[in-house]
């Protein structure tokens, strides 16, 4: 049986007419889980199933790659080629919010309207890690999680510290954090892809930024290099923020 056979495939189209496939499963408070490069891999699906078992309605948008394809040179190359020509996503732009954030916010609003509660969770990983922070601009997102946020790719000091947010969106994120919306961040301390973003988040959000610094120099905190402390922190964060 394919890993996604128990998931319901659909599509979300926003007000601008932009659409992407989605996969949905579970019951309970909502979580938008945004896959990492190279796509909705077997490891991402297994982690998503853990969130379902923990009592969440999980929606996975498919933004690039091929669902269920294993992680490897071919699948990574395919995903990078799609990203490079996409107008919705950028690997290098600093001080700008990724355009796909608007579509992801629309998806979060739709899920929140469906499941109710104080809001939904948003979890991005690696290339999409910062997308969850951009989604926080919308009040429907009550629990943003940044797992090893790696864009813009840390080429130079400015990009290494950048949050991939426009100044206006950063102002909204600061205001929501000051009003009590916490942000959870996960990384391995030696992960160079994260750059200096955790220092930027601590400076900008203060105590509202909850950082989990894991020992070592691995990368994927919840999938390929899964660390139980990271997985436990996410479940505890969602339980506190989404169950009222």
Automatic annotation (TrEMBL):
Sequence ranges assigned to domain Dienelactone hydrolase in this UniProt record: 27-149
GO molecular function terms attached to this record: hydrolase activity
InterPro entries: AB_hydrolase_fold, Dienelactn_hydro
Coiled-coil segments on the chain, per record: none
Annotated keywords: Hydrolase
Entry protein name: Dienelactone hydrolase
Native organism: Nocardioides marmotae
Native organism taxonomy: Bacteria, Bacillati, Actinomycetota, Actinomycetes, Propionibacteriales
């Amino acid at each position: 049986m394919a890993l996604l056979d128990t998931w319901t495939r659909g599509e979300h189209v926003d007000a601008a007419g932009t659409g992407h496939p989605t996969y949905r499963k579970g019951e309970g408070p909502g979580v938008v889980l945004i896959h990492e490069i190279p796509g909705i891999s077997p490891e991402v699906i297994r982690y998503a199933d853990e969130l379902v078992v923990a009592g969440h309605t999980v929606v996975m948008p498919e933004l690039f790659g091929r669902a269920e394809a294993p992680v490897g040179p071919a699948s990574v190359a395919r995903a990078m080629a799609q990203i490079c020509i996409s107008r919705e996503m950028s690997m290098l732009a600093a001080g700008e919010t990724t355009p796909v954030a608007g579509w992801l916010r629309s998806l979060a609003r739709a899920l929140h309207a469906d499941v109710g509660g104080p809001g939904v969770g948003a979890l991005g990983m690696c290339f999409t890690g910062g997308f969850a922070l951009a989604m926080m601009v919308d009040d429907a997102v009550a629990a943003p999680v940044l797992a090893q946020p790696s864009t813009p790719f840390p080429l130079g000091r400015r990009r290494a510290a950048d949050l991939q947010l426009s100044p206006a969106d950063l102002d909204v994120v600061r205001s929501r954090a000051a009003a009590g919306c916490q942000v959870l961040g996960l990384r391995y301390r030696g992960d160079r892809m994260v750059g200096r973003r955790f220092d930027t988040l601590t400076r900008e959000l203060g105590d509202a930024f909850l950082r989990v610094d894991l020992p070592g120099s691995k990368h994927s905190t919840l999938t390929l290099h899964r660390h139980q402390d990271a997985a436990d922190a996410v479940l505890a964060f969602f339980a506190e923020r989404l169950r009222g």
